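Hey team,

Filing this mostly as a record. A colleague (T.K.) asked me to run one chain through the structure pipeline before their review meeting, and I want the input and output archived in the tracker in case anyone asks later how it was produced. No errors, nothing strange. Just documentation.

Input sequence:
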Amino acid sequence: MYERVDNLSAANGGLRVEHLRLCRTNDHLSHLPVSIKALFDDFLATCERFAATLVDEGERGENALISRWNETSSALSDPEETTLTW
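Output structure:
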């Protein structure tokens, strides 16, 4: 694991910032630091937790999580039509 903390450049006040924690630089400017490494690490941890939960659920003879996963993935792959314009 690595630190999810860094410092802004001197031009931005040299403030200490943390991954996905809003940092207010002044009254008119805020930064939301995003660490790609932290996002990837979180993604892997989530996948491992999801897999472990599927195994636990399967051992109990249940399937609620995979059913919700299938419903969600079906909904995302077949979006509703909209008249919304960007």
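Quick notes for T.K.: The CA atoms of residues 20 and 57 lie 32 Å apart. Helices lie at 36-59, 64-77.
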